[in-house]
């Protein structure tokens, strides 16, 4: 399964925000990476550079590589609605992202591992494909044998985020993907219009 496995803090510093969640290393050095750090003179970025940065930020945030991301964009342009918004909605509807949003894992990377290791069910059946696209009404749960896993229990205890498009039943350790979120409901700081402009060139 292809995925980014490199240093996370370096990527977060590149974009100037903690895209992978809480990061003490990023808080200490929240300036761009490189030998000269803050002292290096950085010229004004071109329009293309800004668009490329925004696309890379979205890819790293959701843990999607280029080919898959491009295919998602093609799917978004073919669908009804504004392509940029549809693209983010497709990203949010991925199984690994919803597992992360539900608080079953503290990170998308961890959520992807739980899915691929067959700990997660969709509508009662085990699904081990992180990119699986959920539909409104789908029930996502923790497999019966996996409910006692310490990693899952600790994550659920520390989970504090609440999202309008997701419900969670802590007793059953399952939640419902109520609806595809609207753009206003998606908390990620991504300018999807730049991504559309980049791919439209």
UniProtKB/TrEMBL annotation:
SUPFAM superfamilies tied to this protein: Alpha-L RNA-binding motif (SSF55174)
Location of region: Disordered: 26-45
Q: Which residues form the Small ribosomal subunit protein uS4 N-terminal domain?
A: 3-92
Q: Which residues form the RNA-binding S4 domain?
A: 93-157
Recorded family membership? Belongs to the universal ribosomal protein uS4 family.
Assembly, in brief, is: Part of the 30S ribosomal subunit. Contacts protein S5. The interaction surface between S4 and S5 is involved in control of translational fidelity.
Report the protein name in the record. Answer: Small ribosomal subunit protein uS4
Species this chain originates from: Haloflavibacter putidus
């Amino acid at each position: 399964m292809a995925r980014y496995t490199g240093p996370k803090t370096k990527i977060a510093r590149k974009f100037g925000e903690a895209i992978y969640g809480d990061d003490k290393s990023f808080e200490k050095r929240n300036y761009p990476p490189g030998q000269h750090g803050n002292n290096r003179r950085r010229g004004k970025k071109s329009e293309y550079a800004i668009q490329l940065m925004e696309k890379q930020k979205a890819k790293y945030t959701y843990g999607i590589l280029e080919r898959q991301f491009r295919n998602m964009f093609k799917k978004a342009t073919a669908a009804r609605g504004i392509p940029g918004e549809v693209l983010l909605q497709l990203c949010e509807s991925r199984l690994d992202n919803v597992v992360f949003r539900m608080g079953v894992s503290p990170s998308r990377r961890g959520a992807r591992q739980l899915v691929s290791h067959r700990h997660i069910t969709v509508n009662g059946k085990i699904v081990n494909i992180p990119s699986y696209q959920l539909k409104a009404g789908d029930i996502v749960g923790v497999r019966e044998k996996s409910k006692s896993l310490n990693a899952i229990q600790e994550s659920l205890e520390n989970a504090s985020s609440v999202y309008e498009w997701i419900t969670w039943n802590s007793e059953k350790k399952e939640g419902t993907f109520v609806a595809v979120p609207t753009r206003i409901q998606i908390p990620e700081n991504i300018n999807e219009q730049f991504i559309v402009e980049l791919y439209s060139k």
